[in-house]
């Protein structure tokens, strides 16, 4: 793993994520950042509930923001780091954006995340990012707490 990731990006990401978790809220605690080389380009949290739109995942919002800031369709020199393995919808957007490296802190269930994409899908795109899972207890606990509170609220 990149030394820079160990010494700057990951600790900074975790600190920011922790501050967002403490705020709580109605949104699933998904948080995403995109870096170009060593520079933070964009960050987003889920806004599905806020916008009543299931496409407002943190990864997609972050990709849109990064592309707008850089002024390009592709992000070949960027790194995406996120609290939860990107879902299949986000995976498609990541592939089409040509992000070369995706780091996530909590794997999705089998068949629900980017790591579950079929060989056919990967070959049809002629591109696939390096996937790195760095398990983080903070991310696991944030999601467990969020869903426990949701079940309590709706039961």
UniProtKB/TrEMBL annotation:
Coiled-coil residues: none
Highest taxon of the lineage = Bacteria
Please list the GO terms describing molecular function: metal ion binding; tRNA-specific adenosine-34 deaminase activity
Which parts of the sequence belong to the CMP/dCMP-type deaminase domain? 15-117
Q: Which PROSITE patterns match?
A: CYT_DCMP_DEAMINASES_2 (PS51747)
Record GO biological process: tRNA wobble adenosine to inosine editing
Protein name according to UniProt? tRNA-specific adenosine deaminase
Organism, per UniProt? Leptospira tipperaryensis
């Amino acid at each position: 793993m990149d030394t820079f990731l160990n010494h700057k990006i990951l600790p900074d990401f975790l600190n920011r994520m922790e501050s967002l978790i403490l705020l709580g809220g109605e949104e699933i605690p998904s948080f995403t950042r995109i870096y170009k080389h060593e520079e933070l380009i964009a960050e987003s949290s889920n806004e599905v509930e806020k916008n009543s739109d299931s496409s407002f995942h943190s990864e997609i919002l972050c990709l849109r923001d990064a592309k707008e800031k850089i002024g390009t369709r592709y992000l070949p020199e960027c790194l995406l780091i996120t609290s939860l393995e990107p879902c299949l919808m986000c995976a498609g957007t990541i592939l089409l954006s040509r992000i070369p490296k995706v780091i996530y802190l909590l794997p999705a269930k089998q068949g629900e995340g980017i790591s579950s994409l079929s060989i056919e899908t990967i070959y049809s795109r002629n591109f696939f990012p390096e996937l790195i899972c760095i398990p983080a207890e903070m991310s696991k606990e944030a999601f467990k707490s969020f869903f426990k509170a949701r079940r309590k609220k709706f039961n």
